[in-house]
Sequence to fold (451 residues):
Amino acid sequence: MANRPKSSTINLFSIGETGFQLMMYLAVNYYAYFLTDVAAIGAATAGTILLFARIGDAFSVPVAGAIIEKTNLKWGKYRSWLLVVPPITATFFILMFTNFSSLSTAAKAITLGSIYVCAHFFVNLAWSAHTALIPVLGFHQEDRVTISSRRQQFVSAAQILLGLIAMPMIIALGGGNEAKGFFLTIIIFALLQVFGYRLMARVVKPWAIDLQTEVKQTATLRDMLKQVFSNKYLMIFFMVEVFILTARYMILGLAVYYFKYVAQNMLLVSAFFTTVSFGLLIGSFVGEAAARKVSKKKVYIVGLSIEIICFALIWVVAENPMAYIGLNAVATFGTGFANAVMYAMYADISEYSEWKTGKNAKGLIMALSALPIKIGVALSGAVIGFSLAAIGYVAGAAPTPELTRSIILIASMVPGVIAAFALIGVLFYRLDEKKIVEIRQDMQKRSGIVA
Fold:
């Protein structure tokens, strides 16, 4: 890609994801609660729904990436999916937050689980397409880091907005009926997702048209499998992300239980999500600045280390809601610090894969960046559900000292141990900036281009 994107292009490309993030974070942060306390499904059953539905969701990620790589629609290889898919996604997410009160518990569980899988399959198509455009827009390393960090900053802003408005919206729109509140809130967020992706498709159009002329040869299924399984750095980073995302989503998914039963103040839920989102936002800015001076790997390791330390400290002070909120804010500062370079690292991995195999399959590799998210969400939801069942959780029960300490345990030490495996794994990731330069020089020699 000869033309480098302007700052305004990068900003609009990133802000287009805001509606999508509002929709997704409502599902990530509140869906376990929706199942147990709104849809009246038992904790163990909810955990089973989340586990199997999210496993199905995870399996659909490479399928979505393969579909995109094998398809060339008229509005651009990747861009087309930003226009076609989001309205379908919106419909399924609205159904996902519908309380089918006339159904039996078993029928409701099957229905919501099936809707969840369908909703996230279409999410994966749009996600795979827009992440595939990151290494296209960000061919230069500086642009790559900027796009990665800017996306994280707008994601953080979306989380701040969600923390400020989600629970008040649910309460206000519901008028005392939580089911109605969740239903109306997701309608608004789902529609914002549609408009955001259309904005993204508009600003990326020049690059999408250029890319359409570049990708005459489509990778075969065998090529795609080779892209994945011959890429050692993809495998390493994939496992690192699975561990850390499982830990992060456990913290977020258990927050509503913490404030209901430990702090006994549900209004603090908004304060929690707002504060931790500010930590995420600040961390992404600091991480972006750090990435311009040191390697992406060092930035990522520092961010993970901050998170792990905070998870351990939460166990000590969690009976104090303000300390709990504060330490989680510092932990998410570490999250933002690491995430400032995450997509830049995936873009490097896609370039390494092309060099290794001789085939361009950015859509597939960048699509797989969503797979750790799906697995992390699946594992965290299952662990939350089964952990709550193990401690004898019953929705609406009066809080006891045993219940509060048990919730604190599964909201701090368990995620901390899981996150520690991520830190160990990233030490084996050795795809640095020097290696990328060597890869580009070799690819230029292969194509007969003189640097």
Q: What stands out?
A: Residues 141-174 form the longest helix (34 residues).
